[in-house]
Specification:
Elements (H helix, E strand, L loop, with lengths): L1 E5 L3 H12 L3 E6 L2 H11 L3 E3 L5 H7 L6 E4 L4 H13 L5 E5 L6 H6 L4 E3 L2 H9 L4 H9 L6 E6 L20 E8 L2 E3 L12 E6 L4 H9 L9
Parallel strand pairs: 1-2, 1-4, 2-3, 4-5, 5-6
Antiparallel strand pairs: 7-10, 8-9, 8-10
Helix pairs in contact: 1-6
Length: 226
């Protein structure tokens, strides 16, 4: 089994170590050079140094041939992007994402991540088990009716401007899906910096919509975010 793991933190390290022990062909992606070299030396597996949200890095790691791509970074936005790229661009058979904020689990499922889990033990259990496709599909659909897709146009006085997404205090149960900047659509990741004029599309629980609007615009209008 070919496994691509993105994220060499404590959870990623343990998952990579156990998968290797099971005889899986593991490649790990880690953005920090020192950490990546240490993992490579200690576990004796290939380590690609780079940003896992970059398609070229995923390609180099072998996402096209992977049976499973697992996103285990400490940034939920990045984990979502990694899984979406793996599934849509590289046609990975399965994607698994670690969700650091439990409130994002429903959003990830709605957006098509095959499996959304928390602790490393759950991830390892899912790798060993055979996933029932019908049950997985039902899991994707769970809670769609409870979510809203909304959009915000960022003005020049937006408090979110010139800040990385991972630095912005977004409320629980919301995730940015797309940013339209001029004639280009951007898949947002944790390091994406917002600019004036950006049209931001977000998937959110209605209960935190007003808070999300305040974070992005500095005001609350109480409408549909348009």
């Amino acid at each position: 089994m070919r496994v691509v793991i993105v994220g060499g933190g404590k959870v990623g390290y343990q998952v990579a170590k156990q998968c290797t022990a099971w005889g899986c062909e593991v490649v790990l992606v880690e953005h920090d050079l020192e950490k990546g070299e240490r993992i490579k030396e200690e576990l004796g597996l290939p380590v690609i140094i780079g940003d896992g949200t970059n398609p070229q890095v995923l390609k180099k790691a072998g996402a096209e041939e992977a049976d499973i791509v697992i996103a285990i970074t400490d940034d939920d936005q990045d984990n979502l992007v990694i899984c979406q790229l793996a599934e849509r661009q590289f046609k990975a058979r399965r994607t698994l994402a670690l969700v650091n904020n439990p409130g994002n689990e429903k959003l990830f499922r709605w957006l098509g991540v095959n499996q959304v889990v928390g602790p490393a033990s759950l991830i390892l259990g899912l790798i060993q088990e055979t996933v029932d496709i019908d049950a997985t599909t039902a899991l994707w659909m769970q809670g769609i009716k409870d979510l809203n897709m909304i959009q915000f146009k960022l003005a020049s006085d937006s408090p979110a401007l010139k800040r990385k997404i991972k630095e912005i205090p977004f409320p629980n149960e919301c995730i940015l899906v797309t940013i339209v900047r001029g004639n280009s659509a951007i898949v947002p990741c944790g390091n994406t910096v917002l600019e004036a004029g950006d049209l931001v599309f977000a998937l959110t629980n209605p209960s935190v919509q007003a808070e999300l609007e305040y974070v992005l615009t500095g005001r609350v209008q109480g409408g549909d975010g348009r």
